[in-house]
Design brief:
Structural class: alpha+beta
Strand content: 15-25%
Number of helices: 11
Oligomer: single chain
Strand order of the largest sheet: 1-2-3
Radius of gyration: 24 Å
Distance between the termini: 44 Å
Number of strands: 6
Helix content: 40-55%
C-alpha cells in the first residue's frame, strides 16, 4: 500500500495523531532519507502499519480486512496467477456465500487493476484493503515449502537424466530455465527468507546436504540427490563468472 504524502498528512492531522510541528520534522526526515512520509511514520513508530492502513481505509471508505495469510486456501489463492498478484498487490482470500470473490488489495482505488481483475474473475468482486506485509505474506503462499519445491524440480529433471552420467554436465543442465538453475534459485531464495548469512552445499557419500547459517548456527535445510552436484557446481560457477572447466581452484 502506497499512500501519498498529502493523504498521510491529512490522516495524521484529522485524527490528531500528530501536531503540525511534529509533522514538519517528519517531512524533513523523509526528505533527508529520500523516503515517503508513510515509511517514516511507520519507521518512527508514530503509527504502525496496521493502524495506518485502517485509517487509510476509513478515509477512502474502503472496507479493511485483517488478512491472515495462513488461512487462505491455495485453490482460492490460485484463482489469479502469481505474476498478477505481484503486479497489482492483490490476492483472492475467500469466496462469499453468493459466489463473490473477496480480494485484498494494497490500493483498492487502482481502477485499472480492478477492471483487469473483473475481466479475469468476473464482475462479482468485493474489494478490501489490507496491509502490504499481509498481502506479501499471502503471495508467498503461492510457493510451497522448500522441500516440496525442490522435490518437484528434481523429479522433473529425473525424467531426462542418465544415471551413468553423474559427473557429466550437459548444455541443457546449464540453461537458464533448467531444473538445476531453478534449484539454485530456490536455495538462494529460501536462504534469503530464512535470514541466512551463508549457504553450505556439502557433498556426502550418498546425497548432497544443504545447510543455512542463521544467527551463527548452521542448520540443515534439505538433502539433494548426489547426482546433481556436478551440475549444481557448474551453475553456481556461471553465476559467479568462474570457468566451469577449472576444477583445481575455487
Amino acid at each position: 500500500m502506497r499512500i501519498s504524502d498529502a493523504l498521510v498528512e491529512k490522516i495524521l492531522l484529522d485524527t490528531k495523531t500528530t501536531t503540525k510541528d511534529q509533522l514538519n520534522k517528519l517531512r524533513d526526515e523523509a526528505k533527508a532519507e529520500k523516503k515517503t512520509l508513510q515509511d517514516i511514520v511507520i519507521k518512527t513508530g508514530l503509527v504502525n502499519e496496521k493502524d495506518l492502513t485502517k485509517l487509510y481505509a476509513d478515509e477512502t471508505e474502503a472496507p479493511f480486512i485483517d488478512l491472515n495469510p495462513k488461512e487462505v486456501k491455495r485453490e482460492i489463492l490460485h484463482l489469479i496467477p502469481e505474476r498478477i498478484a505481484q503486479q497489482y498487490g492483490v490476492v483472492v482470500f475467500d469466496i462469499d456465500k453468493d459466489g463473490s470473490k473477496l480480494l485484498a488489495m494494497e490500493d483498492p482505488d487502482d481502477i485499472q487493476a480492478v477492471n483487469f481483475l473483473q475481466k479475469q474473475l468476473g464482475a462479482n468482486l468485493k474489494v478490501f484493503v489490507a496491509t502490504t506485509s499481509s498481502i506479501r505474506s499471502a503471495i508467498d503462499q503461492y510457493k510451497g515449502t522448500m522441500s516440496n519445491e525442490l522435490t518437484k524440480v528434481i523429479s522433473d529433471s529425473d525424467e531426462d537424466s542418465d544415471d551413468d552420467a553423474d559427473e557429466k554436465v550437459s548444455q541443457e543442465d546449464l540453461a537458464e530455465d533448467s531444473p538445476i538453475a531453478q534449484t539454485v534459485n530456490l536455495l538462494i531464495e529460501y536462504g534469503v527468507k530464512a535470514g541466512a548469512s551463508d549457504i553450505h552445499i556439502e557433498p556426502r557419500e550418498s546425497y548432497v546436504l544443504v545447510r543455512y547459517r542463521v544467527d551463527g548456527v548452521l542448520r540443515e535445510a534439505n538433502k539433494l540427490p548426489k547426482k546433481v552436484i556436478a551440475a549444481l557446481i557448474s551453475r553456481i560457477k556461471i553465476l559467479a563468472n568462474l570457468k566451469i572447466d577449472e576444477h583445481r581452484a575455487p
